[in-house]
User: What shape does this take?
Amino acid sequence: MEERPEAGSWPAGERPGAQALEGLEGLQDGQRLDDEQRRDDAQRLDDEGVLLDLRLKPALEQVSTVRVFLESFLSSVVTNPDLLARMTIAAHELLENAAKYSASPTARLRVGLQCFAHWCEAWVEVSNQGRPEHVDDLIMTVEELEDPTTAAEMYQIDMVCSALKGNESGLGLARIRAELEMQIDAVVSGQSVRLRATAVTERA
Amino acid sequence: MMTGEPLKEIVKPTFSGKVHRTDEGVVVQLTGSADVLAQPHMEEMFAAAHQAADAAGLKPVKVDIRSLTFMNSSCFKHIVLWIQKVINSPSESRYGVVFLSASSQAWQPRALKTLTHLAGNAISIETA
Assistant: This one.
């Protein structure tokens, strides 16, 4: 029987879309991709199981409206209530971050689902132009959250320490990783930020 | 049964929150979507609950989230801070916290599991 992979435990190069992600992630390391390769990689990533592709100006007050729409939109496709909740909460947290920290008002929300023999991969992705002062912090946070055990500890610590952060909770990404058990991938090129939260679940 | 006027009441188009006394103790009732509109009011509601719980003796505070469809991490933070305050209270004034959840709200089990990890025996969960 096919073993179900957990989000975050994919063998190198075996995760669907891994090549495309790795190619784009290489930009963080200063590697240069020529324009054609970058377009091909981005296109391959774009086409994998996309259910929704939306451009919007995510004002904070409107994020819940988008979440409610997304829940309604996905409910006929994603029949697992837990998975649906994880996807919509992740979308909400990512969009709130985009609304708070964007350098420009527009963002792109994409949602996808791919099912294989025994498991499904669901993902939510938000792209935006980040403020320079937040981009480095973001990369560091995503790296720190990579390990699920560390992520759970970070979430607990962040929650306890969150009083020190005033109105900015800083909990959104940790919540996605620890509570929703979704892997977070960040693709950063200059100020362009693309965050993808991925859940792997058994196929019903 | 509710007794007297609510200790705190917030009514927004998509969210409402109420803190009130009952014969069994203090109840915090949250309804709708706890997002950016609810965030500024969460701290004051749980401060009111904490104050009322002190006055009510050691009766548990019930947090009714059965009709709460969503909570963002910024609002969740205020619940965590309140529970921390309860945990750090002197044992003679430490009260219990009971969450009333609904199985129809798919987001709640994971959020409550997180709280349970954090608070241990300080909270209990009743799911309808």
Observations:
- Residues 8-32 of chain A have pLDDT under 50 and may be disordered.
